[in-house]
Amino acid sequence: MIFKAQFFAPFFIYMLSNFLNLIRYKEPLFRPPSEAGSLIFQISYGCPHNKCLFCPMYKGTKYEVRPLSEVLEEIERAAVRYREESRIFLSDGDVMALDYPYLKTLFEKLNSSFPKLARISMYANGSSINKKNVEELRELKELKLYTLYMGLETGDEDLLKLVKKGETAQEMTDSVIKAQEAGIRMCVFVLLGLGGAKYSKSHAELTAKTINKMSPKFFAILRFIKAPGTKMYDGYQTISEYGSIDELHSIIKNLDLTSTVFRADHTSVPIPLSARFPKDKETLINYLESLLNNSSLDRHSEGIIPDSL
Fold first, then answer.
1. Rounded CA gap, 54 and 192, in Å?
2. Which domains does the chain possess?
3. Which secondary-structure segment (H or E) carries 231?
4. What is the pLDDT of residues 208-248, one digit of tens each?
5. C-alpha to C-alpha distance for 193 and 241, rounded to whole angstroms
6. What is the pTM (predicted TM-score) of this model?
7. At CA 200, angle to CA 194 and CA 203, rounded to 5?
């Protein structure tokens, strides 16, 4: 399925897909906020891992890779209407898990179909990146692979096991270094509050250490908000709004980055922030300390929860 819009409304997607007479579409479909203006092709359905306790995104979706021939035909049809597009995002979760020959053929088709194509982006797990060698990653880079979005979630190895991430911080660190060596931009996500009250300190400290090792070009912070039906590990205790900002302060204070764009402007985060490291580090620290020292943050609950994430 192909989708072009600034937001996701199931009825709108249904109508648009029928209008374009496209082959298949399956809900749900997710993308990073920064891909709001991109043309989206749904290459696979669901997530190949789909066991993370904190993630409700694909729990009702069976993982399935679409036949390559079907996707290539869809690209041909979409190119008639959207030939001038320069940005493409490939969904669903972890498209990088697909075999290299599939990806290469897919990328070559996108390049030949969209003459103004400048960037292709997608979600990726560390293990999926690590299964590709540097030469393969460089070839995908030459075919316009621009950004890989990866959820580190936390640098605490014990916490990663608890939330059933299925990967280690070291494996994910290796994948970021490998991808960036191939010239691909990495955007790494971390979840405030993932460790709850018990693991808050280690979560913040070890996450900062891991991000320092990765040195990603983009680093984004979100806050874990327990979605209806989500079952976390035994003993999980939600931290307050104050606690989440305290975690954020600890992470930033321990960062030692040479050239990273930082974003904490997702709706889940109590205080929207954006900065560049290292030049804005002290400004961020001072601002967060001023928040922690006044009475504006809720110390007893999560604070105001956004209507949508």
1. 12
2. 1-123 (3.30.750), 150-309 (3.30.750.200)
3. none
4. 999 999 999 999 999 999 888 789 999 999 999 999 999 99
5. 9
6. 0.90
7. 70
